[in-house]
Amino acid sequence: MENNNSAKIKNENASLNGNDKNNKDNGMMRGRGFKFGDDISTDLIAPGRYFHLRSNMAELAKHVLEDADPGFASKVKPGDIVAGGRNFGLGSSREHAPAIMKIAGVGAVLAKSFARIFFRNSINIGLTVLICDTDKIDEGDMLEIDLRKGVVRNLTKNLEIRFNPLPEVMIKILSDGGLVDHIIKNKGFNL
Amino acid sequence: MKTITEKILSSHAGRDVRAGDIAVVDVDIVMAQDGTGPLAVSQIKKLGFSKVANPAKSIFFIDHAAPSPRKELSDSHKVLRDFAKESGARLSDIGEGVCHQILVESYVCPGDVVIGADSHTCTSGALGAFATGMGSTDIAVGFALAKTWLLVPQTIKVNFNGKLGKGVYAKDLIIYLIGKITADGATYKALEFSGSVSSGLTIEDRFTISNMAVEAGAKAGIFAADETTNRYLGQRGRAECFKEIRADEGAKYEAEIDIDCTEVEPMISMPHTVDNTMPVSRIDKVKVDQVLIGTCTNGRLNDLKIAAGILKGRKIAEGVRLIVAPASRIVYLEALRAGIIETLIESGATVISPGCGPCVGIHQGILGDGEVCLSTQNRNFKGRMGNPDAFIYLSSPATAAWSAVRGFIADPREAL
Ligand code: SF4
């Protein structure tokens, strides 16, 4: 899993399509938690001053979440998990925001709630996003996500947090490997 | 009995749909801009398409970094120009203006479904369309198939009643509303604006309000298409596309919010969130370094006219930079012909080319460390104007103009 992800970081043309196979195979993900507050905007995730790097996502990913946590890009390891508060991803429609989180190695984003466009974009590019109570997660906690059972296990604190299942349509898109693959496979929408 | 959203989405789904349904709908207008367009183009190609489904209503806008301030962006612009040619899509190049303004001026009709790779696509809801922002991949599919999928949203009805006081504008109403319901108060929902004040608002005022619906998390911000809409389309030479659209009596709303506009004062949003609101009269003295009048929220003719009314015969304060960005070429020309631009320049304003200007922090007015900007834009997130160590306040054009004169955030009622 780690090899696959770090290879992706180096790959300039890191693919935006396709679900992380490694996650899906057994429905389990494990990583360190990075804690953020409410209202983490797309400006904090992918600052506008790096607009010119949008055509070079591997470079842009080096600035991921920079304005919320300046050291994040250098600390994050493949498979790590971002835990935010309310309204994660509010702001612009830039798909680059979830895309560079994925390219930087973020395995999943947990939040109490998501802004609509960010949530949809994440599913489209195959970044796992889950709605759950993140109050019981602190920076550095080891987390394990069991997609099948619908729980996040905080291994550090030894407790379980349930998450809401994804809407049926989104599961279909995710399991087809993102929206582009869904459309190619079904020759159009099949939701 | 349907809400406006349910009516429009039913007619585009080919069946009766209600809030909560998932629907694949036909799309009338699809657009992307220079920040989101290049990724959309690569996704269209991945889908295996080289043409767009509906060329006359597929538009790529070069407005966010226009004219280009650096070579990487020039290359992105080239991607859009080339793809527009190849695919048959329309291209709106530098100098034409901000995407959302051009959409309402020249493309959107009442009853349309509009999707755009820009969060403020909800602006077009002011014409009685269902218009919503999405990301590049969704938009790529929209370009290729002229279809998208949607969860039909619940609607929150916002009743603006009472009377607007002196110095209080549409911008103050929407800032007030967002302060009340918060930045995620309408997430996944459509806002439908109603009440006596709403029906009396000009179309430009409605654009301002619909534009900021997304700042409350909303999927769409819709006004009924009425006589005001009809007049506007007529002025734009598009009378034939008018049709009346309103909600049915007895339509089901998830909630209703009543705002007595008589109580609303000139408002501001303070750093670093739009829902951090306060009446201008109640804030401490905040010195401003830069004032921006423009953007897809408040860069229209009437906005510039209100600002010029305040700035006429006055000079901006020493140490203040006033930047004016007309929302479109049409606005720019009309403002020139009406002498508005002359007044603004005489007062000390710097007028820049139609487009997004410094709104998204790429060029033309990036803030310095610790600087304060008062802007008529829609968003004040940390880092928005190119510097995470700067502070952005939001207001109406009247408050912005008067503050530029005073040198600190000031109540426009003092000038009227
Ligand atoms: S003016 Fe600002 S908010 Fe409007 S489209 Fe341009 S960058 Fe976005």
Number of strands of chain A: 7
Going by helix content, strand content and strand pairing, the class of chain B is alpha/beta
Q: Mean pLDDT of chain B, as a whole number?
A: 98
Report, as a whole number of angstroms, the end-to-end distance of chain A: 30 Å
CATH topology of chain A: Aconitase, domain 4
Provide a descriptive summary of the structure in words:
Chain A has a single domain (11-186), classed as Aconitase, domain 4 (Alpha-Beta Barrel). Chain A is 32% helix and 17% strand. Chain A has helices spanning 2-10, 21-26, 42-45, 57-60, 72-75, 96-104, 116-125, 168-175, 179-186, and strands at residues 28-35, 81-83, 108-111, 128-131, 142-146, 151-154, 159-162. The longest helix of chain A is centred in the middle third of the chain and has 10 residues, at 116-125. The two termini of chain A are 30 Å apart. The model of chain A is unreliable at 1-24 (pLDDT under 50). With 416 residues, chain B is of the alpha/beta class. Chain B has a 5-stranded parallel β-sheet. Chain B has a 5-stranded parallel β-sheet with strand order 16-15-14-17-18. In chain B, α6 (170-181) packs parallel to α8 (203-211) and α11 packs across α13. The mean pLDDT of chain B is 98. Chains A and B meet through α7 and α9 of A and α2, α3, α5 and β7 of B. Bound molecules: iron/sulfur cluster (SF4).
